[in-house]
Amino acid sequence: MKSNNKQQRAKTADSDLTDKVVAINRVAKVTKGGRTFSFSAIVVVGDRNGSVGHGLGKAREVIGAITKGKEEASRSMIKVPIHNGTIPHPQLGKYGAGKVMLRPASKGTGVIAGGPMRAVLENAGVTDVIGKSLGSSNPHNMIKATIDALQKLRDPRTVAKQRGISMNKLFNGTD
């Protein structure tokens, strides 16, 4: 009975999450009996309201790999500060050889970013942003570099509070 409640809570928690499969890789292992194929899937999960996570799932079948990736992604969720549909300030992110630059954009610009970066930003709920990959184009490194950049973002309200100024002065320079 207790396990049933846990399953129900997991279903309701995951129901508002959207997921995007970024990459699926087929791996062949040559054995005495022939080739054995397995799959790895990179999945990005988010609620489109400031939370996003990524995961890597490996299994003998594609569906199993995607499911495992979703589970890992939902466990590794982070909170992203979003201000008027964009990020509060420019930010660089690094992971391995992957380097990512994110810049805020005005309303109506949309998400201008490459594949893996776009998946992370859209699932986080960012609607207007300019992103550029400066390093590796490997999806693993790009996703982790984008997550790194999003983790480094600072919430505008806390910055204004720390500086003792209003939000208008923080963004416009005038009070």
Q: How would you describe this structure to a colleague?
A:
This protein folds into two domains: 2-78, 2-Layer Sandwich (Double Stranded RNA Binding Domain), CATH 3.30.160.20; 80-172, Ribosomal Protein S5, domain 2, CATH 3.30.230. 38% of the residues lie in helices and 33% in strands. It has helices at 2-15, 62-75, 115-124, 139-152, 156-163, 167-172; strands at 18-31, 34-46, 51-59, 78-79, 91-95, 98-104, 111-112, 129-133. A four-stranded antiparallel sheet has the order 1-2-3-4. Strand 1 (18-31) and strand 2 (34-46) form a beta hairpin. Helix 3 (115-124) runs parallel beside helix 4. The longest helix has 14 residues, at 2-15. The termini are far apart.
| Overall CATH architecture of the largest domain | 2-Layer Sandwich
Strand content: 25-35%
pLDDT < 50 stretches: 1-12
- The helix/strand series, from N terminus to C terminus, equals HEEEHEEEEHEHHH
Distance between the termini: 58 Å
Spatial ordering of strands, largest sheet = 1-2-3-4
> What's the number of structural domains?
2
Structural class by secondary-structure content: alpha+beta
Oligomer: single chain
Shape: elongated
CATH topology description of the largest domain:
Ribosomal Protein S5, domain 2
Strand tally is 8
Q: Report the top-level CATH class of the largest domain.
A: Alpha Beta
Radius of gyration: 19 Å
Biggest sheet overview: 4 strands, antiparallel
What count of helical segments does DSSP give? 6
Helical amount: 25-40%
